[in-house]
Amino acid sequence: MPEDLVFMMGKYEARIPGDRLYTENHLWLQPADTAFRVGLTAWSVRLLQDVYFLDWDIDADASVRHKQEIGQIESSKAVSALYAPADGRLLSFNEQLLDDPSAINTDGYGDGWLYLFETDANLLSPAEYVAHLEANWEKTQRLIKGQLN
C-alpha cells in the first residue's frame, strides 16, 4: 500500500492517504470494484469543522457533469454546495450519512464516504494533491482569516 502523506494546515495535520486519488475540489476517490467510493478530504473537513447535515439534489444512478452541483452540506461554519468531482455517474449514496453525518467528522476516510461514482476522468495522485494544497495554502489562509474577522 502506498504511504500516506501529510499536509500541515498551520499546526493541524491533514492526512492524505496514499491508496486513493484526489480532485482539486478536495474530494478523495478510492477504487471500489468498478467504481470509486468518494468522500471529503481531511483538508475540507478541517475547514468545514463539524458537519451536521447532508442533502442531495440528484437521485442515485444519475449522470453528472464536472462541477455540477449535486447537494449541500451544512456545518458549524457554513452551508456549502457539493459538486461532482468529474463527468461520470453517481451510482448510490451512503444512506447512513443521511440520518447521521457524524462519520464525516470522525471517520472521513472510512465510514464517512459520501457516494459511489463511476468515471474515467484523470484524477490527482496523492503527491499532486499535496502540491495543489501547497500552491493554494496562502490563499486559503487569507480566506480563513477573512471568515474569522
UniProtKB/TrEMBL annotation:
Pfam families: GCV_H
Cofactor: (R)-lipoate
Species this protein is from: Maioricimonas rarisocia
Any GO BP: protein lipoylation
Keyword Transferase: no
Gene: gcvH_1
Domain Lipoyl-binding stretches: 35-118
Family according to the record: Belongs to the GcvH family.
InterPro entries with a match to the protein in the record: 2-oxoA_DH_lipoyl-BS, Biotin_lipoyl, GCV_H, GCV_H/Fam206, Single_hybrid_motif
Keyword terms: Lipoyl
GO cellular component: cytosol; glycine cleavage complex
Ranges in coiled-coil conformation: none
The name this protein goes by in its record: Glycine cleavage system H protein
